[in-house]
Amino acid sequence: MPSSNHNRMSLLALVLTLAGADCGGSGDPNNPNNPDNPPSCVTRISAGGSLSCYIRKDSTLFCAGQGGFGMLGDGQMAIKSPGTQVALGNVTQVAVGQGGQHVCAISNGDLYCWGEGGHGKLGNGGTTTATPFRALTGIMQVGPGYEHTCAVESGGSLYCWGDASGGKLGDVSFRVTDPHSNRLPLNDVVQVGGGVDHTCALLRDGTVWCFGLNQLGQLGNGGGASPPGPTQVRGISGITQIAVGANHTCAIGGDGALFCWGQGRLGKLGNGTLDNQNAPVKVSLPTVVSVAASADDTCAATVDGAVYCWGVDGNGQLGDLNGNNQPKPVRVTLPIGALQVGMGDDHACARTTNSAFFCWGANNFNQLGNTATNQSEAPVLSNVTCP
Asked: What CA–CA distances, in Å, run from 129 to 81, 137, 162, 183?
């Protein structure tokens, strides 16, 4: 029958396509110099400081960039690397902390952290380690800050530990080294992120709650006071995703609208000014599907695959080939549409629609995922090897 013949031809085409993926030459998916057919196996990314990490389709984890405190997670204390495998398997999420000094990942539902261990942020009492340390079990999401870490367990409970200064661990004033000991008074949490002196959590009902210092408007509650414990961000609802920078936060609404609040220095809020905002302001963008924030920059991916960045551009991290700071979103010259973005201190990354991994900006620690050390204002394909 014609439909049967059509199915056979479609199956044959699929088999030939898959077979070709294992061949070398110009169609080699492991050839990083082939822009027409880049390595296509990256399923999730995260960036922070001078570090970039990605999960491959086989659930293995790799990190590239600065590793002097063991942030590469390979058991070594190498100063830098263009890419090395972390000693974990079955990884479902990776998150690089603010400043890139520590990293956390979820493997088989357990939380592991590694890197610089000051203030107890790894959950191991305060020891620096290049080997992933199991901090908690039954975890579904993690959001490390600068000197603290927070994680959401499978039931929606929120735990935070590390440096407690400023109230970023909630209503405690002392350092917490045991991840089990500090449960926050929030339920049904689905996402958490940490900054330098504040933390924000997204609840299942679409509300956002923040706690910590508020002198720059980080809590988004419309005032300047820093209440003890979580306070609800005003003026937004139906939120589906948050991204916490050093001193600012952004959130995506159910309709894809993007809102940011907190420190406005260098234009990182994207509303065209440099002013701090103690309540969310809307960023003028098409429908947003992913957002990432760092110390002085923010990037977002839109539903049509475009990537926009704003803030400081000292190392080309805005990706617009301009070199100037931008208080409003500018489009990145990415050759392929993107699904997800990651933001370091001086570089940015994107996971594209074909599961490739591109980065741009500073590369002094090989954080762009290649062996060069020069910065790139245009996105470059990272040296990913696919399984």
From this structure: 17, 19, 15, 25
**Among candidate residues 287, 289, 269, the one with its CA nearest the CA of residue 279:** 269
In tens, the pLDDT along 315-352 reads: 999 999 999 999 999 999 999 999 999 999 999 999 99
Residue 268's nearest CA partner among 210, 310, 331, 213 is 310
Amino acid symbol at 150: C
Report the DSSP pairing between strands 158-162 and 148-153.
antiparallel
Tell me the C-alpha distance between 67 and 101, whole Å: 8
Cα–Cα distance between 259 and 71 in angstroms, integer?
31
Name the token pair of 139: 């975890």
Q: In the numeric block, which tokens belong to residue 387?
A: 């399984």
The torsion angle over the Cα atoms of residues 129, 133, 139 and 140, rounded to 10 degrees, is: 50
Phi, psi of 295 (to 5 degrees): -70, -50
pLDDT tens track for 54-111: 999 999 999 999 999 999 999 999 999 999 999 999 999 999 999 999 999 999 999 9
Nearest to 172 by CA among 154, 156, 185: 185
Q: Report, in angstroms and rounded to the nearest whole number, the Rg of the chain calculated over CA atoms.
A: 21
User: Per this entry, what is the length of the chain?
Assistant: 387
Amino acid at 30: N
**Residue in 327, 268, 332, 270 with CA at minimum distance from that of residue 302:** 332
DSSP reduced 3-state for 315: coil
Distance between CA atoms of 350 and 106, rounded to whole angstroms?
21
- Per the listing, tokens 């990256």 go with 42
Q: Torsion over CA of 27, 92, 383 and 78, rounded to 10 degrees?
A: -160
Integer Cα distance of 138 and 286 in angstroms: 36
Residue type, 377: E
